[in-house]
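Box 3.1 A note on notation
Throughout this textbook, protein chains are presented in two layers. The first layer is the amino acid sequence; the second is a token string describing backbone geometry. Keep the layers aligned when reading.
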Amino acid sequence: MYISARERQILEVLLTERNEITVKDLADQIGVSGRTIHRDLKNVEDILKEYDLLLQKKAGVGVQITGDKDRIRELERFLYNLFHTEYTPDERQTIILCELLETDGPVKLLGLANDLNVTIATVSADLTRLEVKLQTFGLSLIRKRGYGVEIEGDEGSKRRAMSNLITEYLDESEILSLARENIQKRSNQQINTISDRLLGLVEKQKLLTVEKIVEATVQDLPFSMADSAYIGLVVHLALAVERIQKGEGIKINQEYLRDQQATKEYKFAEKIVAELEQVFQIQIPQAEVAYITMHLKGAKLRHDHEYLIEDSSLQIAIKTRNLIDYIGKRVGLDLSANRSLFDGLVMHLKPAVYRIKQSMGISNPLLEKIKRDYSELFSLVKEACEQVFSEFHVPDEEIGFLVMHFGAGILGKKELANVKTLVICSSGLGTSKLLATRLQKEFPQLNDIQNVSVMEFKKMKLDDYQVIISTIPIPDYQLDYILVSPMLNKDEVEKIHSFINERMIVNGTEAALPIRINEKVGLKSTADLIDELTSIHEYAETIATLLNGFELKEVKEQGVKDILLLAGEDLFKKNKVNNIEAVIKSLTDREKLGGLGIPDTEMALFHARSNHVIKPSFTVYIPQEPIEVKGMDQNWMSMNVLLLMLSPEDISEKALEVLSYLSTLLIESEDNIAVFQSRNQDSILSLLTANFDQFFYKKLMDIRSV
């Protein structure tokens, strides 16, 4: 039986869908018109008849393969074992790229043409298209007559290309440990096609072993990882083991290695490496440990509240504000007051900028759909990034994630009834926030929504959630949940409507929910209550300490060091520091590393964490004359306002979160900047009081609602 490449693609999409799929969605996934799909479906029906299967069509809903499960599996196996007389251009290029990355040395064009059953001219055209893709990884193609073709570039770039290929084509849920049993079943049945070819780059069993090691280690990380970052780390490590076993090692600058060794992520990288060395009986050099450290630093998601105490991250916050202002002006909306948008962008951009600077790259499986469904917003965000991040190129994959954040911010949300909903997404905060916003727009009753990754989902208490919506399958989860795409199409909206109607409302009253609410509302363990009270106390104490100790002082001193000495003496008298010289040295040492002036303002933020600081403090000093200081953008500027923020070295995560929040207030909006530059103590204190009041109330609600 002859099956064309497109018919095979249609069958593979239909076989992986649990529910009906519209012709439009089929066309979008395959990249052809709806008319073409309608034409091909006639042949698909003939193929299905050979297996006693039916293509069920529902007007306004979509199409779906129905029939005996054994015959469906038989068809799946046939498609896998099918000798491909025709590949799609995308598949051909992927297979060629795999072959070139795997082979040490040149590959003959004739051999590639024979393997793919195409002409040498077709292979040559595919290679021309691949050249553009390879350039994004810092790789190039060497093509010589009589020699063949091979990829030229360093080992790190080759691994990035391999990792990108695997994460682009391999189903994310297959790698997550929740679906480990499914991977093993699928590898036995061998029903996948392009994914299994790609996994030739790394053994599937090796991937599973590495995943177990990583899963055990990441539980101890002081920050959470998006599932996509977790998957990226697993794939990277599996590739690293594979390449080390083949004698291919990473080379790294010694100064860069020393920098990485000084970070806390390096210790976790060493722990992962020790496990890998023991399991695979290999020696992993320090350069590889530094490379793993880089991946960990590029994978942070949230709960790392130090990020806005570091001035490099304050620069990210400034860039974020500029990005929000630029987009807001272009779409005619004031987005400056959207705290959720600001926080979400800062949390995404911190590791994103790190990834970009290290040329790490990231996979965004939703990129093509984002470009298609949000084309105007994508172009606008790309334009904004070119303006705000002019010092480097922001790749489309990262822009796609930023579009998700802005899409959520621009769509807005309605606050109505209160149904606690859990949204599980694998692609990070941007995807889940956009989905949450779409849900709020379509279903106002689902306004109490929490976004989590699958890794977080595994550790959660789920008793309080009435609706669970996921963008990926959760094989080991037994209770009901709704599986949707991150973009939430029309069919899925209907599916959620049906779910709510059937499961939650019977004759106008709540019925049995997929997850039952604890009937003893308010009853909790002593340990849980103590944890709540401790958290509340840490937030309250830090805020009270900052507000109580806040002071604005006009000073005669003309130099930064003299102002810091005066500040140190004041804080020593108030028992906020116990060693003036040590604290000043921490501040001046930090100043030598880079500018502390906040660009486009008259302010500079001097800050330090030190064992010689007893209590956190925030004070403001106004010199009589402007002082020249270096800005965070490395340009010199006039400082009229010196902001001083000090924190003990050993401080709780909740206290750090308060200081982080204070850092964002400094540059959150033009109005805030104007107040902090006003030289008016009462105005600044009023701003701090109002914002800390909102912050504390929100934290109180979050803590009490858990």
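The first helix runs from residue 5 to 16. The longest strand covers residues 603-610.
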